[in-house]
């Protein structure tokens, strides 16, 4: 089955990747979800994706090993082929300076990482409203 919508979930916390992915799948099973554990894997995969065939959304954890969410975001925004991809940053951190840096680097939204499944479901619903319900995505 060809997926017209793809979400990359980049988070070094396996449980958080599972929770957000499950919440999105429950809401919209037609979306293909690709999980990666760090920003380097995300960049390698997203740069090889045929982006003209699909609508893509990236969900980035701010704090990851190898390549952080902020570094991955900066690399995405610096690449003309993928800089248009909507990117949402999630984090357990509420450091206003880091959040401000992420917005300056070009994120579309910042979401504080929840600690309940209900919180992840609410994120999936918000993503559905903000990104999935529009033709652009």
UniProtKB/TrEMBL annotation:
Positions carrying 4-aspartylphosphate: 61
The keyword Phosphoprotein appears for this protein: yes
Protein's name in the database: Response regulator
One GO biological process term: phosphorelay signal transduction system
Gene3D superfamilies for the chain: 3.40.50.2300
Coiled-coil region list: none
Domain Response regulatory: 6-128
InterPro entries: CheY-like_superfamily, Sig_transdc_resp-reg_receiver, TCS_response_regulator
Key word Phosphoprotein present: yes
Keywords, comma-separated and alphabetical: Phosphoprotein
């Amino acid at each position: 089955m060809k997926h017209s919508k793809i979400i990359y979930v980049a988070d070094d916390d396996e449980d958080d990747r599972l929770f957000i992915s499950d919440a999105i799948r429950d809401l919209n099973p037609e979306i293909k979800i690709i999980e990666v554990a760090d920003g380097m894997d995300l960049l390698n995969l997203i740069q090889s994706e045929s982006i003209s065939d699909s609508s893509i959304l990236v969900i980035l954890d701010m704090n990851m090993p190898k390549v952080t969410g902020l570094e991955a975001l900066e690399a995405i925004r610096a690449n003309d082929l993928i800089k248009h991809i909507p990117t949402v940053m999630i984090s357990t951190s509420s450091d206003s300076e880091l959040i401000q840096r992420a917005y300056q680097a070009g994120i579309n939204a910042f979401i504080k990482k929840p600690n309940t499944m209900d919180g992840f479901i609410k994120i999936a619903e918000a993503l559905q409203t903000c990104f999935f319900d529009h033709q652009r995505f």
